[in-house]
Amino acid sequence: MDISKWTIEDFVLHRAFVDEVLNPTPESSRYWESLLENNPRKKQQAIQARAIVLRMYKTHERLVPQDKEELWGRVQHQILVGTNPSSVKDMRSKAYRSKKKGHRIGNMKVPQIYRVAAILCVALGFSYIVNLPRWEREPYLQAEPIAYVEHRLPAGMKSTFALPDGSKVVLNAGSSLRYIKDFDADKRVIYLEGEAYFEVQKDTLRPFVVLAGDLSTTAIGTSFNISAYSPDSVNVYLLSGSVVVADRENHEEPVFLEQGEAALRISSGLMKGTFEEEEVMAWTKGVIIFNRTPIMVAVKTLENWYGVTFELQNSPPSNLTVSGKFDNEQLKNIIEGLSYSARFSFKMEDKNVKIRF
């Protein structure tokens, strides 16, 4: 199929494209993905057309197949006949006399304006059904409640799982992740609190969006890590591909990241920087790395990692930092190692650790 000269209307009026938007299958998704990969200039038009189709079909309200056929028949009839019977003859006469290039419906050429009218007919037809009283539209439409899936991990536990689109997630301890079951038809939205690593399955028609704190991170097919334990400190680390990071609260200019770059949420706004991949990704491999880390940040990390509570019996020096690398190490060994450089004593009682500087 050649879509190199398609307009938004062409996408909206093509039955195979509408079926892909409303009822995608792995085969059809691969087919359209291939078409758009070969025609990159048409991706934006396809995305806009998808949004139009979803608005017309009300995404979460499903039509049975026979009703779809009936409505499409009515649309085609309206295009050809209209409300005035004489309009058919006039339309044919104008179409045959026109020297402008049009598009063919049946055996008749129709100027571009009639193609726009076709979209309006579809939109009005579905709008009419959607706005009927419930008892009148029930045979046509059946609303489905929005169901969410949530993964919530306590301190001391990590989890790896796959999302409905095949994307991989590694969720850190003390974190939660929530999304609409099977995602929306036009986007994949994730709500994150805490920290997670994502390997996103590519889908140019359904952007992958992670909302964490005030930041939104948008990707198509890529891998990145987000740390958002505090709304005031949200960091995005890009390992492959590209993403767009936007501040939803302050409406600043979005930050475009490439591999090896990071977006850091600080008090003054978004800041772009770089990072050490080993340090950022260490937690996914069971490794803790402290690199001149403030002692209180290290304490919070250990509390979350091992599910314990630290009790500081006096205040540490404000400039005290710790360093060290611990590969799947027991908590007692880590604390003992840090105690030499940070000069503190400690006592462990079950899930409680007492520290004295």
Question: How would you describe this structure in keywords?
Answer:
357 residues; alpha+beta; Jelly Rolls; Phage tail protein beta-alpha-beta fold; 3 domains; 13-stranded mixed sheet; 3-stranded mixed sheet; 11 helices
In terms of structural class, how would the helical and strand content be classed?
alpha+beta
Query: In which range does the helix fraction lie?
Result: 25-40%
* Poorly predicted spans: 59-63, 81-110, 127-143
Beta-strand segment tally: 22
Helix count, DSSP H or I runs of 4 or more residues: 11
| Overall pLDDT score | 79
Biggest sheet descriptor: 13 strands, mixed
Measure the end-to-end span.
72 Å
Q: What overall geometry do the principal axes of the alpha carbons give?
A: elongated
Radius of gyration: 28 Å
β-strand amount: 25-35%
Overall number of structural domains: 3
